[in-house]
Write a structure and sequence with these properties.
This protein has two helices and eleven strands, in the order βββαβββαβββββ. The protein is mainly beta.
Length: about 150
C-alpha cells in the first residue's frame, strides 16, 4: 500500500479596516486571499456611514480573490454597524452567493472560498477589551490538487 503525503498550508488573517490582499502559495499553487472588515456592510469605498452591501460585493468581486476573510459581518435583523442600518439578511450568505463562493460564519467573522470547504470549527479567545472574548473561525479548504489549506479568521 502506498501512502500519499498530504501537503498542507496555513493562512491567518489580520483584522483590517481596508481590503488587505495577500498572495500565498500552497504546494506551488498561488492562492489570492483578501481580508476585509466590511463594517456591517457600510464600508464600501466613498460610502462611509451608508449601508450599501452591493458596493461591498462589487469591491470584493473586483479583488478576484480565491479566499475572502470578512470581519464585522452581520446576520440578524437588529440595528448594528457604523451606519445603524436594519439588517434582514445573512451578509456572509448574500456575499457568498453573489460571488459564487462557499461560506462559513461564526458571530461576526466569515470565511468565503471558491474552493471546497471540507470542514470548519468556530472558536473563542480571551480579549482584554470590554466583553472579554472574541470569536474566530478555522476552515479547511481542499484545492483541486488535493492540497488542504487551513485558514483562520
Amino acid at each position: 500500500m502506498i501512502l500519499k503525503k498530504i501537503q498542507t498550508a496555513v493562512v491567518v488573517a489580520l483584522l483590517s479596516f481596508f481590503i488587505l490582499p495577500l498572495n500565498t502559495y500552497a504546494a506551488g499553487e498561488k492562492i489570492k486571499v483578501v481580508s476585509y472588515n466590511i463594517q456591517g456592510g457600510c464600508s464600501a469605498p466613498m460610502d462611509e456611514g451608508t449601508y450599501n452591501i452591493d458596493k461591498t460585493i462589487q469591491v470584493l468581486k473586483n479583488a478576484q480573490a480565491d479566499v475572502i476573510l470578512l470581519q464585522e459581518v452581520q446576520s440578524g435583523s437588529s440595528k448594528k454597524g457604523t451606519c445603524s442600518a436594519k439588517f434582514n439578511k445573512n451578509q456572509a450568505q448574500q456575499i457568498g452567493e453573489a460571488l459564487g463562493m462557499e461560506y462559513k460564519l461564526n458571530g461576526t467573522v466569515a470565511i468565503l472560498s471558491k474552493y471546497k470547504i471540507k470542514s470548519s470549527s468556530p472558536g473563542t479567545f480571551k480579549s482584554q477589551k470590554a466583553g472579554g472574548s472574541r470569536k474566530y473561525l478555522r476552515a479547511v479548504l481542499e484545492l483541486p490538487t488535493k492540497v488542504f489549506v487551513y485558514v483562520y479568521n
